[in-house]
Specification:
With 240 residues, the chain is an alpha/beta fold. It has 2 domains: 123 residues, Rossmann fold (3-Layer(aba) Sandwich), CATH 3.40.50.2300; 106 residues, Arc Repressor Mutant, subunit A, CATH 1.10.10. The chain is 40% helix and 22% strand. It has 8 helices and 12 strands. A 5-stranded parallel sheet has the order 2-1-3-4-5, with helices on both faces. Strands 9-8-7-6-12 form a 5-stranded antiparallel sheet, with no helix packed on it. Strand 10 and strand 11 form a beta hairpin. The longest helix is centred in the middle third of the chain and has 24 residues. It is globular, with a radius of gyration of 18 Å.
């Protein structure tokens, strides 16, 4: 059994040609796909049966695609990949800010699409496997706590927020190697990360906000210009 068997992916795309290309590519790699032309159709479906991942085109006829991304992350909790035109860098950045796990640019290269899909699914699958095995590891740092099984981030006052998979993956990567510089490829776990791919930088900014880390003078997640990022804290791990 391969890793993609029986995994369901929903594609939200109003252009039939693009949708057929997407679904055909994913089905060739063993994924089950459903195609939706409108946001209303997709959102009605995911309420009944959430998929593992939704691929969302931002240019939709009935609703702003960014609003769909935000609703999927807040109410469904599945993986979300945005689909954008090559010239719309701002849309990609805003999509990541709204909680998307990754993006793919039209026209896309099939192998890159599948690699990015599998990367998102591994992040979500890691949480599920850890929960099933009962291996709850909690990182404690500067009064904060992060539960790797539930993705729950607890602040020093006891307030709790559940991170999306992309943010949780990034925070755990930093926590596993505190006080060590990690480059963008290491943090993304994508060795062939393209030079113009700024998704890690956007997620670092989002994570800093969650940790109340001043972006102009960060104390916890520091930028090492030209190299990468460093989590400047001591971390202790406990098991539950």
């Amino acid at each position: 059994m391969n890793e993609s068997e029986k995994i369901e992916i929903h594609v939200l795309e109003d252009d039939p040609l693009v949708a057929r290309t997407l679904t055909r590519t994913l089905e060739e790699y063993g994924f089950n796909c459903r195609w939706f032309r409108t946001a209303a159709e997709l959102l009605a479906s995911v309420k009944q049966r959430p998929p593992a991942l939704c691929i969302v085109d931002l240019g939709l006829p009935d609703r702003d695609g960014l609003d769909v991304v935000r609703e999927l992350q807040q109410k469904v909790g599945c993986g979300v990949m945005i689909l954008t035109g090559r010239g719309f860098l701002s849309d990609r950045v805003i999509g990541l800010e709204f909680g998307a796990d990754d993006y793919v640019v039209k026209p896309f290269e099939p192998r890159e699409l599948v690699a990015r899909v599998r990367s998102i699914l591994r992040r979500y699958g890691h949480r599920g496997a850890e929960s099933r095995q009962g291996g709850r590891r909690v990182a404690c740092f500067e009064g904060w706590q992060f539960d790797t099984a539930s993705f729950a981030l607890t602040d020093p006052e006891g307030g709790e927020e559940v991170l999306g998979a992309a943010e949780a993956h990034l925070l755990q990567a930093l926590l596993e190697h505190p006080n060590r510089i990690q480059n963008r490829q290491q943090l993304s776990r994508t060795p062939d990360l393209l030079p113009y791919d700024r998704s890690i930088d956007v997620r670092i900014s989002r994570l800093r906000r969650k940790l109340r880390d001043d972006p102009h003078s960060p104390r916890l997640v520091k930028t090492v210009y030209g190299v990468g990022y460093l989590l400047a804290v001591n971390v202790t791990w406990t098991s539950k």
